[in-house]
Fold this sequence. Notes:
Elements: E1 5-6, E2 10-13, H1 20-27, H2 30-33, H3 43-54, E3 65-72, E4 78-86, E5 93-100, H4 109-124, E6 129-133, H5 139-147, E7 151-152, E8 157-161, H6 162-173
Amino acid sequence: MFKPIETSRLAIREFKETDLMTFYQYRKDEEVAKYQSWNPTNFLDTMKLLHAIIGTPFHFQKGRSTQLVVELSKTKEHIGDVYIGIDEFDSNKCYIGYTLARNYWGHGYGSEAVNLLLSYLFNQSEIKEVHALILPANKRSIHLIKKLGFISISGIEYCLYKPHYYNNRNNMEKSYP
């Protein structure tokens, strides 16, 4: 079971059945899905996905993955989600993803959610390297990842190693309330 993590503005927690409508609303948005590995979904597909997420407890084991809700700390409003996927060959390596509803773009929530997730991964697990796969056309996401200290290792893959996270951490913490 994933224990919720929080900043003064955001929290990351497990999905619940009551998240279905919000999850569906932003996943069906073509602009939100534009650079994702999934296409805009219909209600039934979103419901099946949510049930699969809820029904599969997450463990830091090779090949395991999960998605978690990103919500506003004060109002508990569900604004997006983050993904953690442990590499199938190396349990010290994972992949992350992040999606926010369009209304929440441009407010620093993406950077804050990813930074919160990185803090969890590097401090509460054995993860030593975090990767993100980002299409070259997704300039905003590339900017976000680079701001957090990730380096490009291929045309679409970015990586952050644990020691680099700690070197950049003081600068990142200054940008959040």
